[in-house]
Specification:
It holds the Pfam family EamA. With about 120 residues, this protein is mainly alpha-helical. The chain has one domain (about 5-115). It has helices spanning about 5-30, 35-50, 55, 60-90, 90-100, 100-115.
């Protein structure tokens, strides 16, 4: 199997898991609140990352930790809003709306850079 074929297969699997995450989120929202879902998601990611990258984490500087906390807080907010959005609409609508960021971020960036305020 060529590397290109393997890369395409991996992208398909990643997209499938990404799309299914909204369905699972909708299912879990029946038994947990949005903050609990996001908190568990971040805790699980932290634990898995900590196990996989333990040696690298020991070399992290204070500046990197502070920057990571700031970005992590921002990401937590984004995931919380997405989870609340999934609770108020269908999983397919939520996935579609979130995927629109791929279109709007470059467009907004172009407008801001071209027409600097």
């Amino acid at each position: 199997m060529s590397q290109q074929t393997l890369a395409n297969m991996v992208l398909i699997v990643i997209n499938a898991f990404w799309g299914l995450s909204y369905v699972f989120m909708k299912l879990v929202l029946g038994s947990l609140q949005a903050f609990n879902i996001v908190g568990l998601r971040f805790l699980l990611a932290f634990l898995i990352s900590g196990i996989l990258f333990y040696k690298r984490l020991m070399l992290v500087t204070k500046k990197v930790i502070i920057s990571s906390l700031m970005l992590g807080t921002l990401l937590f907010g984004v995931f919380t809003f997405i989870t609340f959005g999934v609770s108020m609409t269908s999983a397919s609508n939520a996935g579609f709306l979130v995927s629109l960021t791929v279109i709007f971020v470059p467009l907004i960036n172009y407008l801001l850079v071209r027409f600097q305020l």
